[in-house]
């Protein structure tokens, strides 16, 4: 019990540190939101002084000294009210986040789970059949694929499967004319549009799971209890899954917890390449436009989910592995 | 165990071959435009609006992040052609200036809002007054000129008379370009400053059709006051349209920079056209409060040392030309140019003359470096914004060409917001910057040169970032502001051009383009170099000039 309480205390402390950093970091960036808006406008032509004044007034550039802003910000964090976005003025930050969140959570979430399950299973197989082609192919392919920058894979897929092959749509999360409803055709449309981004993330993240699992598994395969199980004449599959894999999965499970926490952050580059309306794209827009309210809300969400995922993994570890409880 | 390494070597070989193959074929694939066959002939596909990546529904025409479609729904009193400054009366059939501080707009008869109500002088008055009470929407700053607004009638026509705070003739066009909104809809809006105008009611040629966060359509306004001139029946505006989409998906009109435009856009379809008239002047803006840039000889030396053709080619892949030093855009504003200025005011590279100018400023060459009397090398940092790749290419050229003379140039490229901040605070040696392109010589140069926009270094300047102060130029601008005589303003324009050339407050390099792409597949009558009646910008009221000029292309020739 003290173990869980200690972890909870750590969680709260880290949370406060993260929240505070989250406030100060964006403000260290030079220039103001109005500067960012003007910079965008002035690419099309000169911007008059009057326009600048109007834009500053529109964005309601934060007043007061840093301390006042900080206190105000803490109130916002507690009440989960992040005000109005600068970039998408006059949209509310909470509305923007709630619109983008489902896309990211479903796309990145499902793919992360898939990649973990498939990758881990392949890793088990590779370790069990080590030395055969069933080991060489996934191990080599895994390290090969995970070495690719994933935006590059994204661009390749986009170009060949989208523009040249016309197999998949090139951007968006659904057809422009599709009506959001709970129907087979709309869900099909969503899956069709998510195919390329999903494939990109799957291809590039699979390798890590395979290698991690394989290496941990090879270690456990050398342990005495595995040899003992084999000597007892247990079936191969039983030994592989129930004895070796079960013990080897701990490090991968930690990674999985962290990856799940990171899901909320989306996949900035992939969403950017495919124009996918998720959190990653929103975050990119917020940073580029110095949209403090939006940035704060998004960073906070990401930090909190990573911290909570970490906390849960810690607790889970305590249950799975009695040694950590000490 | 021996066979595994060999096998893995084989595998990597295969993989590398595949990857190289992909990369190589990628370079050679020719992309063709595949227009969507479900889009009918009377419908234009526009790359005009950009969601990020989805649209927010906001058609309030006075907001910086409105939907672009608002420009096809709401109309101004007059439209100024941003290419050459020509004025077309629009909702006002006539604009008169009885004296330099009064503007009278005579409204057009028979203009209706899309809900059937007639446009009245009260709507115009209401719009102006609303911009006063909601100053955040006054993007053009019309209330820095206006004193009062009154409505009246003249010969049976409704009029709106605007009294200015002081004599200011050029202000008339700024005020006249205000988009007019209907009083009967907007008067009930509690806070126009946050109003998103979801269901816009305007006088323009199009009405909002189907809206979704990824695309909206617009339909022709069947009660439009010049409906007979509008033959386009529908518009489609998708939220995502990058260069690749523009080329492959059969767009009819877009406004974006396109690399290697003749091969990419032009090569994709035989009806694809482009027109890149100058849209602004990209220049070196020296900080005139700092030595040695406050020395005209140093500016002269830098100006003469540069090969503008090379800079323009590097920056724009050959699309744009070297710019005149006269402070205007050529050939757009050829009519305004003083004919006595040689070579149209374009400074050509003359290294010997540049060295002579530097010598006058007290610099000489020593061990391949240009040094002053104390032996210190002439050295400065050149500020440009990160991500503006054309500017960066130009800046690198400037760096290369000046270092050939022994000048040390360092490039600094902060993120755009930080670049803006540095520019406004005067926190730079020499900055890359754009000016011009409003179509009006006075407006372009007043912002650039008027000392009323001067602020000391460390204070934010509204414009005039190079911090130029010249009482003689201020006087020319003041006269220009109060003159109703076109002959006099032409003469004053000449004087401004000479000031730009002799004083070099900024050093013009090349023209920034106005990147118009269009297709003659469905419609003809687009503006081009021979018919410069508008630029191809999709987001300004000049789009209305284009919509009222397009006619369907004769499709019978396809069947031959």
Automatic annotation (TrEMBL), chain A:
Give start and end of each ABC transmembrane type-1 domain.
101-313
Record-given protein name: ABC transporter permease
Task: Tell me where it resides.
Answer: Cell membrane; Membrane
The alphabetized list of GO BP terms reads:
transmembrane transport
CDD domains reported for this sequence: TM_PBP2 (cd06261)
Task: Tell me the organism's taxonomic lineage.
Answer: Bacteria, Bacillati, Actinomycetota, Actinomycetes, Micrococcales
Tell me where the transmembrane regions lie.
Answer: 100-128, 140-164, 190-211, 253-274, 294-320
Q: Which GO terms describe its cellular component?
A: plasma membrane
> Where would you say this protein principally sits, based on its record?
membrane
The organism's superkingdom is given as: Bacteria
* Recorded topology in the membrane: Multi-pass membrane protein
Give the PROSITE patterns listed for this entry: ABC_TM1 (PS50928)
For this chain, the family text in UniProt reads: Belongs to the binding-protein-dependent transport system permease family.
What keywords does the record list, in alphabetical order?
Membrane, Transmembrane, Transmembrane helix, Transport
From TrEMBL, chain B:
This entry's Gene Ontology molecular function terms read: peptide transmembrane transporter activity
What keywords were assigned to this record? Signal
Localization, per the record, is:
Cell membrane
Tell me which domain of life the UniProt entry assigns to the organism this sequence originates from: Bacteria
Q: Which Pfam families does the annotation name?
A: SBP_bac_5 (PF00496)
Give the similarity note.
Belongs to the bacterial solute-binding protein 5 family.
For this protein, the record's PANTHER family field holds: PERIPLASMIC BINDING COMPONENT OF ABC TRANSPORTER
Protein name as annotated: ABC transporter substrate-binding protein
Q: Which organism is it from?
A: Mycetocola tolaasinivorans
């Amino acid at each position: 019990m003290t173990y869980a309480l200690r972890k909870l205390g750590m969680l709260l402390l880290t949370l406060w540190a993260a929240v505070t950093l989250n406030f100060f970091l964006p403000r260290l960036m030079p220039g103001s939101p109005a500067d960012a808006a003007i910079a965008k406008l002035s690419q099309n032509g000169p911007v008059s002084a009057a326009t600048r004044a109007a834009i500053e007034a529109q964005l309601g550039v934060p007043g007061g000294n840093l301390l006042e802003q900080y206190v105000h910000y803490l109130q916002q964090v507690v009440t989960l009210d992040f005000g109005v976005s600068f970039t998408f003025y006059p949209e509310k930050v909470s509305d923007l986040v709630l619109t983008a969140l489902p896309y990211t959570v479903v796309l990145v979430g499902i793919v992360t789970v898939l990649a973990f399950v498939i990758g881990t299973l392949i890793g088990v197989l590779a370790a069990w059949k080590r030395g055969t082609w069933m080991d060489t192919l996934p191990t080599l392919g895994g390290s090969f694929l995970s070495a690719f920058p994933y935006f590059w894979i994204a661009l390749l897929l986009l170009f060949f499967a989208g523009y040249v092959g016309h197999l998949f749509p090139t951007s968006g999360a659904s057809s422009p004319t599709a009506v959001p409803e709970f129907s087979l055709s709309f869900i099909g449309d969503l899956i069709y549009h998510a195919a390329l981004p999903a494939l990109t993330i799957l291809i590039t993240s699979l390798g890590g799971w395979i290698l991690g699992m394989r290496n941990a598994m090879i270690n456990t395969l050398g342990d005495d209890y595995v040899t003992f199980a084999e000597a007892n004449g247990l079936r191969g599959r039983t030994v592989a899954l129930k004895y070796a894999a079960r013990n080897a999965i701990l490090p991968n499970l930690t990674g999985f917890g962290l990856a799940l926490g990171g899901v909320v952050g989306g996949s900035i580059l992939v969403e950017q390449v495919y124009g996918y309306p998720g959190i990653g794209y929103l975050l990119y827009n917020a940073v580029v436009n110095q949209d403090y309210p939006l940035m704060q809300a998004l960073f906070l969400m990401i930090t909190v989910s990573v911290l909570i995922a970490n906390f849960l993994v810690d607790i889970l570890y305590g249950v799975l592995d009695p040694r950590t409880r000490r | 165990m021996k066979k595994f390494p060999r096998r893995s070597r084989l595998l990597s070989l295969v993989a590398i071959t595949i990857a190289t193959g992909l990369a190589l074929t990628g370079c050679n694939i020719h992309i063709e435009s595949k227009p969507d066959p479900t889009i009918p002939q009377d419908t234009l596909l526009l790359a005009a609006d950009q969601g990020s990546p989805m649209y927010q529904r906001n058609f309030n025409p006075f907001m910086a992040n409105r939907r672009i479609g608002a420009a096809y729904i709401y109309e101004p009193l007059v439209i100024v052609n941003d290419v050459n400054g020509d004025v077309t009366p629009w909702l006002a059939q006539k604009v008169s200036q009885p004296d330099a501080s009064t503007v009278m707009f005579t409204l057009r008869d028979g203009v209706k809002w899309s809900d059937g109500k007639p446009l009245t002088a009260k709507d115009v008055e209401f719009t102006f007054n609303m911009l006063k009470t909601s100053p955040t929407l006054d993007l053009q700053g019309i209330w820095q000129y206006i004193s009062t607004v009154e409505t009246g009638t003249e010969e049976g026509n409704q009029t709106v008379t605007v009294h200015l705070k002081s004599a200011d003739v050029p202000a008339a066009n700024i005020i006249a370009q205000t988009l007019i909104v209907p009083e009967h809809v907007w008067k009930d809006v509690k806070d126009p400053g946050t109003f998103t105008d979801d269901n816009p009611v305007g006088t323009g040629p199009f009405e909002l059709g189907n809206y979704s966060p990824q695309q909206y359509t617009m339909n022709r306004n069947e009660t439009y006051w010049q409906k007979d001139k509008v033959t386009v029946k529908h518009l489609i505006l998708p939220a995502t349209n990058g260069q690749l989409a523009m080329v492959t998906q059969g767009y009819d009109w877009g406004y974006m920079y396109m690399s290697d435009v003749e091969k990419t856009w032009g090569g994709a379809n035989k009806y694809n056209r482009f027109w890149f008239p100058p849209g602004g002047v990209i220049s070196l803006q020296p900080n005139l409060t700092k030595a040695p840039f406050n020395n005209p000889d140093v500016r002269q030396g830098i100006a003469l040392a540069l090969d503008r053709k090379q800079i323009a080619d590097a920056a724009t892949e050959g699309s744009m030309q070297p710019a005149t030093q006269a402070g205007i855009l050529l050939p757009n504003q050829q009519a305004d140019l003083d004919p006595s200025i040689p070579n149209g005011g374009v400074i050509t590279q003359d290294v010997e003359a540049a060295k002579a100018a530097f010598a006058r400023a007290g610099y000489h060459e020593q061990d391949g470096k240009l040094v002053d009397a104390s032996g210190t090398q002439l050295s400065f940092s050149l500020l440009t914004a990160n991500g503006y790749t054309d500017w960066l290419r130009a800046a690198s050229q400037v760096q290369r060409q000046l270092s050939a003379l022994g000048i040390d140039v360092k490039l600094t490229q902060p993120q755009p917001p930080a670049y803006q901040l540095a520019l406004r605070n005067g926190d730079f040696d020499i900055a890359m910057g754009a000016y011009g392109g409003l179509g009006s010589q006075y407006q372009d140069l007043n912002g650039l040169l008027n000392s009323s926009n001067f602020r000391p270094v460390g204070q934010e300047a509204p414009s005039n970032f190079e911090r130029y102060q010249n009482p003689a130029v201020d006087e020319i601008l003041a006269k220009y502001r109060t003159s109703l005589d076109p002959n006099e303003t032409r003469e004053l324009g000449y004087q401004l051009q000479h000031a730009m050339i002799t004083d070099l407050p900024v050093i013009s390099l090349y023209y920034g383009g106005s990147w118009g792409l269009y297709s003659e597949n469905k419609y003809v009558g687009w503006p081009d170099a021979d018919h410069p009646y508008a630029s191809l910008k999709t987001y300004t009221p000049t789009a209305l000039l284009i919509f009222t000029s397009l006619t369907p292309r004769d499709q019978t020739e396809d069947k031959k």
